Amino acid sequence: LAFGAIVFLLAGRTFLRTLDWHDGLTLYSRDLKLNPDAFDLQNNYGVELVRKGKTEEAASHFERSIALSPGWWTNYSNLGVVYQRRGDLAKARKLYQKAITNGNYYLAYENLAGLLLKTEKPEETINFLDTALKKFPYNQFLRKVLIIALTRKADFVQAEKEAQRLYNLSPTEENRLLYEMVLKKQKL
Q1: What three-state secondary structure class fits 4?
Q2: pLDDT in tens, 31-85
């Protein structure tokens, strides 16, 4: 009888919890009311705000997450995205680097690689990617950025090797087309 009562109560609680799940924004919003000092909830709520186009509102939640857990990495990378969208590329770069320092977060590597490709000479991007790809050798995004940087440097021999490696890693139509562009010595 006691076991049945416990199961009934837990089933009721489970049902009530499903009402919280309309979407991520609703779920995290309700959870933050119960636990505003949860660094991961602050971060996740910020992510949902970004997805809804509320980037500026998200920034305060990423900052709060950093204040609550300065040794974490995801919150720094996410705040970096906010600064990059604001156009403060120097601050975004520092935040991505902090995320990498704190936890070798693959998405921070991807974000920083994309930023370097836009703002720096190909050699700097290539140097960064040499290190990044040692840590994440199967990361397709990092390899694509490397291929683009190599073509911008006009190093088509190495770009061809990397494009072949990428296609062997993942033989998609997109990767085949990229490989063909490299073979035609197109700067990307």
Answers
A1: helix
A2: 899 999 999 999 999 999 999 999 999 999 999 999 999 999 999 999 999 999 9
Mean pLDDT of the chain: 93
**Residue among 63, 58, 85, 88 at smallest CA distance from 76:** 63
**How many degrees, rounded to 5, is the angle at CA 66 between CA 133 and CA 53?**
80
Under 8 Å between Cβ of 83 and 95: yes
Q: Position 27: which residue type?
A: L
Helix extents (H) in the chain: 2-20, 24-34, 39-51, 55-68, 74-86, 89-103, 106-119, 122-135, 140-152, 156-169, 173-183
Structure tokens at 63: 């900052």
Judge residue 150's burial from the number of C-beta atoms within 10 Å of its C-beta, 0-12 exposed, 13-18 middle, 19 or more buried: buried
Q: CB–CB of 68/52 below 8 Å?
A: no
Q: How far apart are CA 168 and CA 176, in angstroms?
A: 10
Residue type, 143: R
